[in-house]
Amino acid sequence: MSNIGQFLQNIKEQGGFRAKLRNRLFSAMINGFEAIDTDLTEKQAQLDSIRTDMNAMQAAIDALQKRMDQAETAVTADRETISAIRTDLEGIGVNLRNNNSAIEKLSADSEFVKLKLSGIDRRLGKLSAAARPEGEQTAAQTESTASQPQAAESDYESIDYFDFENNFRGSIDSIKKAQAFYLRYFTDKKNVVDIGCGRGEFLSLMKDNGINACGVDIYEPYVEYCNAQELNAVCGDGVAYLAKQDSVDGIFVGQVVEHLQPWQIIRLCNTAYEKLSDGGCIIIETPNPTSLAIYTNAFYIDPSHIKPVHPLTMKYYLEKAGFRNIEIIYTEASRPPYEIPELRLSDGENTEEFNKAMKQVSELLYGSQDYAVVAVKG
């Protein structure tokens, strides 16, 4: 039998060709469905695994969000705490500054009261001595009474100037710190005169740095206060005292010339040039009339001020006295804490000329309230 015949015979034995073909198709379909079902089962397992992972990730995200919310709450609380601490610290700082100012004021007032009591005791002693019969006064008492300096007739007699300065000039420490700028001009000096020594800030600065200095002031309570602080000071006219010296190598005149008439300032400059040794210097500090701030902040508070002296006028007086090496310094410590801000435009316009003009206006309004003229002889 041929191969074809055998094939046909096999078909007949198995139900025929069509039946065999149908069975094979069904079997292939069933196998395909089973494969698809297996694949779907695997996919479902993968999806279930992914869903589980996503749920875990969501749980982790939720936990992280909760921690972030807690951290944000903690940060907000910390910020509030820090802000409260900062506010408290600022308040403490203000209180400390106020307390320091109050302590300085109380200290100055305490010294003022001590001086008053000392003056009362001294006057009581004088009255007691005057009440004795003339013959009972000792020669020493008579000499002591005669040697007492006479108070100058001035505005200083109309007010208690020591108390006035404590209220308006500033604390002794603050003035001393500001005057430390002048120390470099006196470091090598041996004999310095402080004319108008006041409460002795400059004398104290000289003493701290081992520089010999003597102060002169017409206001006796100032001299008494300086002497009580173991500072060398005498009561009298500063120029008259200077004229009696053989030679000095340094002169400081702080906040004095605004109390003087022009002829007195000229006399001061001439006497200073005469008595200064070669290389000696004089520094004259006074309110700066080129800054309008002095007229609203300080100058007219003091009733003993006559008028401000322009820096060029002061320089002229010193030049006429013979000084040639003269420098005008506008002190930074006396500058008000204000200024006109620069104009800044976003469109790129040139504002240089405007800002230059406003800088001049700012200096006029808020420039240094004091200036100093430094003149060196020879």
Summarize this structure as a short list of keywords or feature phrases.
378 residues; alpha/beta; Rossmann fold; 2 domains; 7-stranded mixed beta sheet; 12 helices; 7 strands
What would your notes on this structure say?
The model is unreliable at 138-152 (pLDDT under 50). The chain has twelve helices and seven strands. The protein is an alpha/beta fold. Helix 2 packs antiparallel against helix 4 and helix 5 (172-179) packs across helix 6 (201-208). It has two domains: 1-148; 150-376, Vaccinia Virus protein VP39 (Rossmann fold). A seven-stranded mixed beta sheet has the order 3-2-1-4-5-7-6, with helices on both faces. The protein has helices at residues 3-13, 17-131, 139-147, 161-168, 172-179, 201-208, 220-228, 238-243, 262-275, 293-297, 311-321, 352-366; strands at 192-195, 213-217, 233-235, 248-254, 276-287, 325-330, 370-376. It starts with a helix and ends with a strand.
Number of helices: 12
Q: What is the count of structural domains?
A: 2
Q: What is the distance, rounded to the nearest whole angstrom, between the alpha carbons of the first and last residues?
A: 150 Å
The secondary-structure element order is HHHHHEHEHEHEHEHHEHE
Average pLDDT for all residues: 79
Q: Say what the CATH topology of the largest domain is.
A: Rossmann fold
Fraction in helix: 55-70%
